[in-house]
Amino acid sequence: MEWLDIAKDLNAGTIGGVAGIVAGHPLDTVKVQLQTSREASAGVLRTLRRVVGSEGTAGLYRGLLSPILSNAPINAAVFGVQGQVHFIAGSSAGLVQVVFAAPSEHVKIQLQTGAMGREHSSLVAGRTILRRYGARTLFKGWQVCLLRDVPAFGAYFCGYEATKRALTEGKSENETDLKLMMAGGIAGMLSWIVSMPQDVVKSCVQSQSLQGDQQTMTQMARSRMQQEGPGFFFKGFSATMLRAFPVSAVTFLVYEKTMQFMS
């Protein structure tokens, strides 16, 4: 693979990733609040109304900067790798990008759940966690993040290529914006289906107070399973699926269009 091709994948992946983040962050906030809530009756619309009612639409974008800053290198890495071998490369990229994803998502979730009070700045929150509690706390939840992202990214890129090939009969001249968006949306939903339980546990681990005793991922999974039953592992599923399709549809469409533009 030539350096020019790598640069194209990196740039297209970054642009597509940021577009997807902005498009899906409001539903990501709803998803995180549903996953970390102990209310059995909380639903997507109820949570959405509660956030908007208490903080306005700005509340839906709490923590937005954190994933933008981290997912630029994350998406650049995974899109740059996936261009060659899809499932194995995607899984490998999922392994590597945890270095960026774990601290970024910890900061994002702390802000989305209000665990840091009235703080709204991702940069300030990240510095505060690092300065007061150290790098170990900043990277809290990296183990379950790893367990989520390795299969998720493998399914993501393998699912996209398989669906795109089926929709276009493997011919580039048959590619349309709608088909690319369909392939991306289906791939996004597939990746979340295989990683949903891990994501719920990760959200709960990373939303814990920074002070006092904290549960590990196994302790969290065991205690919440005992309290809420197997349904705990699929909390926020509706919000996740509602978010997954448009986010991934936008991400892959922008990626493909950027690649075409640079070619």
UniProtKB/TrEMBL annotation:
<dbReference type="GO" id="GO:0031966">
    <property type="term" value="C:mitochondrial membrane"/>
</dbReference>
<keyword id="KW-0812">Transmembrane</keyword>
<feature type="repeat" description="Solcar">
    <location>
        <begin position="7"/>
        <end position="88"/>
    </location>
</feature>
<feature type="repeat" description="Solcar">
    <location>
        <begin position="89"/>
        <end position="166"/>
    </location>
</feature>
<keyword id="KW-0496">Mitochondrion</keyword>
<protein>
    <recommendedName>
        <fullName>Mitochondrial carrier protein</fullName>
    </recommendedName>
</protein>
<keyword id="KW-0813">Transport</keyword>
<feature type="repeat" description="Solcar">
    <location>
        <begin position="175"/>
        <end position="261"/>
    </location>
</feature>
<dbReference type="InterPro" id="IPR050567">
    <property type="entry name" value="Mitochondrial_Carrier"/>
</dbReference>
<dbReference type="InterPro" id="IPR023395">
    <property type="entry name" value="MCP_dom_sf"/>
</dbReference>
<keyword id="KW-0472">Membrane</keyword>
<dbReference type="Pfam" id="PF00153">
    <property type="entry name" value="Mito_carr"/>
</dbReference>
<keyword id="KW-0677">Repeat</keyword>
<dbReference type="GO" id="GO:0022857">
    <property type="term" value="F:transmembrane transporter activity"/>
</dbReference>
<keyword id="KW-1133">Transmembrane helix</keyword>
<dbReference type="InterPro" id="IPR018108">
    <property type="entry name" value="MCP_transmembrane"/>
</dbReference>
<comment type="similarity">
    <text>Belongs to the mitochondrial carrier (TC 2.A.29) family.</text>
</comment>
